[in-house]
Amino acid sequence: MNYDGKIEAGPSQVGGQADEPHVFDATGTSLDRDDALDRRSRRVIVLVIVTVVLLAAALWFVLHKGDAADAAGADTTQVPVVSVVVPGRSSVAGEITGTGSLAARRAMPVGSVGEGGEVREVRVDAGDWVEKGQVLAVIDRSVQVQSAASQSAQIRVADADARLAQANLDRGLKLVDRGFISKADIDQLTATRDAAVARVGVARATLGQLQAQNARLNIVAPASGLVLARNVEVGQVVSGGSGVLFNLARDGEMELLALLSEDDLAKLHVGVAANVTPVGSGRSFAGQVWQLAPTIDNTTRQGTARIALKYDPALRPGGFATAVIESGTVVAPMLPESAIQNDAKGAFVYVVGKDDRVHRQAVKTGLVTATGITVTSGLNGNEKIVMRAGGFLNDGDKVKPRPSTAAK
Q1: Total domains, the chain
Q2: Do the bridges between strand 358-362 and strand 346-352 make them parallel or antiparallel, or are there none, so unpaired?
Q3: Which of 22, 61, 81, 217 is deepest in the core (most CB within 10 A)?
């Protein structure tokens, strides 16, 4: 029995001759020697062919392994689609927004300037319009009137004394020529007359003083304007130390004390126009900056721009308002806020190059308006700028740019 599962029979002597050995398969069937050799050869050939095919397949896999990896990577990596805009250059009217409180532009506190007394009548109230010299409150002057009357009588007494002294002097002058009165007597009469005349002047001056004091008892408006506050009532005793009794706004003019940053304050000058909108009013009032604060608050780093406003009943001191102030016109690229990124190195945008890869570009921003932010340096306006999704990109990333409909 051989190793192929076939049984070879030994030679036999039949008729005195030796026969060829017989080959049997595994089932015991007898095979010829040539058939067995043919089968063995075919088996070797098949094995060789299979081996060659496997080697060829392995070689192809090794040679095309890199291309397959690239194809797999291309299939698994998705290039993001981004919206881009070419900003160009726009002429932008600069606007600075500030907030603050309304106040009287020229507040006039009014109090008692005389010796004071009991308030008999208050003729105006908060919100009334008054004219210069108009009586705001009347103070009791009964005692002062009597003092003035007494002084008026003193004037008449002094005037009578002066007339008598003049008559004595006139008679003395007639007698001096006759020698009845000496020159010294004339001098005495003259001095007496002059003293009497002087006392008349003193009495009249005292009366004028009393009358002036009486006139100052009434509280009057120093100028035309709007009464903002009334702090006095009938029966109240007032004097020079009673404080402010009325608060007036001269000519009714108001102002907004707008708080602005150092940078914004530096862009303004006196005379620029502004629109002021009080909270809850729904109306805007035209005004102009009439004064800029010469100092900056050390804590808030802000300064005050005072915006003058004409009188209007809708403008109430103490109210809160917003001002939009003109700050000139600039020509520069304008981008939406979403296109500008910020990090520790400053502001930047992503520019899409010709190879559809994004590149970081540092920029400097300027005016901020309702439609966007101006870029004062870093761009010329012809670049393709990524409008959105900049926070998800890295420098050098490949993208598929798509023009933004907002830019059309």
Answers
A1: 4
A2: antiparallel
A3: 217
